[in-house]
Amino acid sequence: MDTQIVSVLLYEDVEVLDFAGPFEVFNVAGLLSGVRCFDVYTTAQRPQPVLARGKLSINPSYHYGDEPQPHILVVPGGPGSRRECVNAATLDHIREHYERGGIILSVCTGALIIASAGLADGKSAVTHAVGLPILERMGKDITIYPKARVVDNGRLLFSAGVSAGTDAALYLVSRLFGLEIAQKTAQYMEYDWRYTDVDGVSVIDACKT
User: Which residue of 38, 65, 121, 128 has the fewest CB atoms within a 10 Å radius of its CB?
Assistant: First the structure.
């Protein structure tokens, strides 16, 4: 497979590990295997610093409409996700990516933004435990897997809260480039990756359920 372009969405009060975990996975994937799997960058609505949770300041590489067209869009969660649920620019940005045929990886309460964009209807999903009842109310015919770490709908993947985004990113590396590269990525990160197999409980392939 050719190198995949990954865009990691940023917004005010985004949860740090929600975006930084997947960013690290995609940035170093293939390093120990001598393969360039991904080009990864950050993007935000405006070309200015974004203050993540804890007032961590990040300079996004691009802003909406000024980025290379990605294959994968990471939508993280955090306290600011509630604001983004009613941000028309962000919702349009996510919809446009999906309508072009791109993959979306939702992390934590990023699922609420996905639901607000109307993309979770009829899908299987998970989010942070505190967001599960909210997610269930926000969409139509969403099948919730409260114990799942990762739920895969094909072009739309969901992860549980915070650190689960790292597991979901490694899972997507495995799906696209093979288990060996994903395992070596986790090895390089010295990350205890326990969710390497679709087991119907922690990792769910909703396309086969």
Answer: 65
